[in-house]
Design brief:
35% of the residues lie in helices and 14% in strands. The protein contains 22 helices and 18 strands. The strands form five sheets. Strands 2-1-5-3-4 form a five-stranded mixed sheet, covered by helices on one side. α10 packs across α17. The chain starts with a strand and ends in a 6-residue tail after the last helix. Bound molecules: 2 iron/2 sulfur/5 carbonyl/2 water inorganic cluster and iron/sulfur cluster (SF4). The site of 2 iron/2 sulfur/5 carbonyl/2 water inorganic cluster has 19 residues, from α10 and α12.
């Protein structure tokens, strides 16, 4: 252990800890802008400069290793004036439209300006001056991606987006030396839609300001709700019901399913239904598809890749089209839900009341789901995709006291029932575990219900071997998939591979609440697995509503109707 003093208080930290760790532990506080615990600190924003007795100049707390006997001051008048000056410098190049900004109230720059009491206003039309003589509008304000908006006027050049994209091994954004310094640019300075970007949104999760955000769709949804002309259906993804709690000050990992349903009803949705229902449906189709591929009764290669993660689908189509034959043709739960809401029993119910098509909204932890909704094969089923963060904005906008709502809301029927297997779709390894539960029953194998070996939020590849079935792998993060697929070993080793683009799976999705807590994914995961372990039904094929849907409408998995509505194709 290392002993030091912070603002006159003694504190002990582990060897190798930084001054920032020591400061946080001591109860003192220094602001940070360019720091995130997931990445190596670059110390470019200078917000965390502190005085260390005996040092000639202030040192960045985020990347200075704590030494025995150090005496740290975090808040001298001189340090405060440094911070104010640097903040003013950032503001002078930042548009002053904070009131209208999508991240107003959640912007780190904005809260630092308040915290450090920066008094001076800044020019109304401050514009980023790019190094090149031309800085075309489409590069400064890039709205080409169906999922991600990029506003370089707001960029403070902290580099966290570059780190986030590099951690994904996509590198659609990198650093360029421009004029006064380094700034993040897209590959070859192209619009985002023309780069290798897979819409995962990990950059939006890390951006401390409003330079990278999900395409905002919540205003449009509120308009339709207020209009009240069309019936509205909303579906909620597995990972949203836990993470939404964080937006309203509840303990991370708190299960807020009932609160979220009640909030959606207060927002005015006519039908509150569950993506978890269609997650169970996905398992029915995918498990049968796997079986048919194994028996040689269906086109397509083995191992079978899951297809519910749209960032992964984007990756395959853009970067590795050679893998397309391995992708399951089963639509994602979001899109199955859309197809059933448009064509299934719920659609029939609504058609009895009105001729007008319902407006269908998904609440997703994912930015790439916006992209998935407008894929050619899916176009029209889902009208708007809202991230967990956007849902929180809608709830705040309407002054709904989320944290104090009762947690007893129930989903509507049909399309509201689900199993514990569907709940764990939200965590890396969950889709595979759900499939294994159903496959084991179908093959009469006496396997365990829980598969600890493929659980966990760390980036990497988790493997399980099921006697009588073979080996399967769950890949947490696209970077780990890129590594796994870099040689052909995977072809020999596995029967089925789940890939989730974001670390930890959907619970770590690019549309989830922003957090600096390094254990946040583990806390969300705990909540998700608690939903499963407390469910009465834990296997997808035991979902009664799914069984009824097959009996009354679809016939059977892979029937002609199922193929038409629940399966899709891919193109390079
Ligand atoms: Fe996911 Fe899925 S689990 S992809 O992570 O298969 O987004 O939560 O909705 O579609 O069910 C996301 C989550 C989600 C789909 C399901
Ligand atoms: Fe990179 Fe994902 Fe951001 Fe695209 S959305 S730029 S792939 S981090």
């Amino acid at each position: 252990l290392v002993n030091l003093r912070v603002d006159g208080r003694s504190v002990q930290v582990d060897k190798g800890a930084t001054l920032l760790d020591a400061i946080n532990k001591s109860g003192s506080h220094v602001p940070t802008l360019c720091y995130h615990p997931e990445f190596e600190p670059r110390a470019v924003c200078r917000m965390c400069l502190v005085d260390v007795k005996g040092s000639q100049k202030p040192l960045p707390a985020c990347r200075t290793i704590a030494q025995e006997g150090q005496d740290i001051t975090t808040n001298s008048e001189e340090l405060k004036s440094f911070r104010r000056r640097d903040l003013q410098f950032l503001l002078n190049r930042h548009p002053n439209d904070c009131i209208r900004c999508e991240v107003a109230g959640q912007c780190k720059l904005q809260s630092l300006v308040q915290e450090e009491q920066v008094q001076d206003m800044w020019p109304a039309s401050a514009k980023k001056v790019r190094g090149s003589p031309e800085h075309p509008e489409h590069l400064l304000h890039d709205h080409t991606s169906p999922s991600i908006f990029r506003d370089m006027d707001k960029c403070i050049e902290c580099g966290l987006c570059v780190e986030a994209c590099a951690a994904q091994k996509i590198n659609a954004i990198g650093f360029a030396e421009r004029g006064s310094g380094m700034m993040p640019i897209t590959a070859f300075d192209k619009p985002l839609a023309e780069t290798g970007c897979i819409s995962c949104g990990q950059c939006t999760l890390r951006c401390p300001v409003g330079a990278l955000i999900e395409r905002p769709d919540w205003h449009r949804v509120l308009e339709v709700l207020d209009d009240r002309k069309r019936k509205t259906i909303v579906q909620t993804a597995p990972a949203t019901r836990v993470a939404i709690s964080e937006e309203f000050g509840l303990e991370p990992g708190t299960i807020s399913t009932g609160r979220m349903i009640n909030a959606l009803r207060q927002l005015g949705f006519d039908y509150v239904t569950d993506t978890n229902f269609s997650a169970d449906l996905t398992i029915m189709e995918e498990a049968n598809e796997l079986l048919q591929r194994v028996q040689g009764k269906r086109e397509g290669a083995l191992p079978l890749f899951t297809s519910c993660c749209p960032g992964w689908i984007n990756y395959v189509e853009i970067h590795r089209p050679d893998l397309i034959p391995h992708l399951s043709t089963t639509k994602s739960p979001q899109q199955m839900h859309g197809a059933m809401a448009r064509n299934g029993p719920l659609a029939k119910l609504i058609a009895e009341e009105t001729e007008e098509e319902p407006f269908i909204v998904s609440i997703m932890p994912c930015t790439a789901k916006k992209d998935e909704a407008v894929r050619p094969g899916n176009r029209g089923d889902i009208d708007a995709v809202i991230t967990t963060r956007e849902l929180a904005k809608m709830i705040r906008h309407r002054n709904i006291p989320f944290a104090s709502l009762s947690n007893d809301g129930k989903y509507d029927s049909p399309m509201g029932d689900s199993s514990g297997a569907a709940a764990i779709f939200g965590a890396s390894g969950g889709v595979l575990e759900a499939a294994l539960r159903t496959a084991a029953d179908a093959l009469g194998l006496d396997g365990p219900i829980e598969h600890e070996g493929i659980r966990g939020v760390e980036r990497g590849v988790k493997v399980a071997t099921i006697e009588g079935l073979g080996s399967v792998a769950a890949v947490s993060s696209i970077g780990s998939a890129i590594d796994l697929l870099s040689n052909d070993e995977w072809k020999k080793k596995f029967l089925m591979i789940e890939v989730m683009t974001c670390p930890g799976g959907c619970l770590g999705g690019g549309g989830e609440p922003k957090s600096d807590d390094k254990d946040i994914l583990k806390k969300r995961m705990k909540g998700i697995y608690n939903i499963d372990s407390s469910s009465t039904i834990r296997k997808s094929h035991e979902n009664k509503e799914v069984q009824q849907l097959y009996d009354n409408f679809l016939g059977s998995p892979l029937s002609e109707t199922s193929e038409r509505l629940l399966h899709t194709t891919y193109a390079a």
